[in-house]
Amino acid sequence: MNSVLGMQAEACFEAFLKCSKIYKLLTSNLQIHDSNQTLGELDYIVRDLKTQNVLHIELACKFYLYDETAGISEEEKWIGPNRKDRLIDKLEKLKEQQFPLIHAPETQQKLKDLKIEIPTEQKLCLKAFLFLPIKMDRIHLPKNYNDCIVGHWIRTDDLKEDKAALYAIPHKKEWLLPLENISEWYSFPQIIQRIEEQLLNFKSPLIYKKTNLKIEKFFVVWW
């Protein structure tokens, strides 16, 4: 991962591993090269302190919206806010590129040079933030998807003024921050103007809506 969100997630996950009593971090962000180019990168190599097995872990942090029309399988229906990526694409890249890299001769030699055993297991740690269409019931989704649902998505026609609410439109680099770190809140007319500016640029903004009772998270999509 090299996005802002990716780097933030990596920093958090690496801090977790360094404090963990379950895993020992052996190396992270290990770049693999041949004589001409970079072949790829292994996110984390860790030792399971209970089994003593060495694991290769790939980390992903993704915000996905559920679109029933985007495909046939469930993995095809989870798409990025701007329809630029899909869960199925991430899983296929993992299967076809990231996991097989461990078997490359260059990787084997690199690990040998570092005196690290070849991992016997590979795992994906996917931190997903999932958003459903506003009228969709989550009851039919598998539990592992349900556990990751944090909000919904709407179109501009679904926006209704709530004079008792305040709204925020966090920058992408703020999406993982605690809500108390968000300092700029707007009235409904003010947020509508900012939403429309984003939609004109084919960007689907993430919106926080705050009342005395709760805070809602939702995307307003341009598509």
Automatic annotation (TrEMBL):
<dbReference type="InterPro" id="IPR015003">
    <property type="entry name" value="DUF1853"/>
</dbReference>
<dbReference type="Pfam" id="PF08907">
    <property type="entry name" value="DUF1853"/>
</dbReference>
<protein>
    <submittedName>
        <fullName>DUF1853 family protein</fullName>
    </submittedName>
</protein>
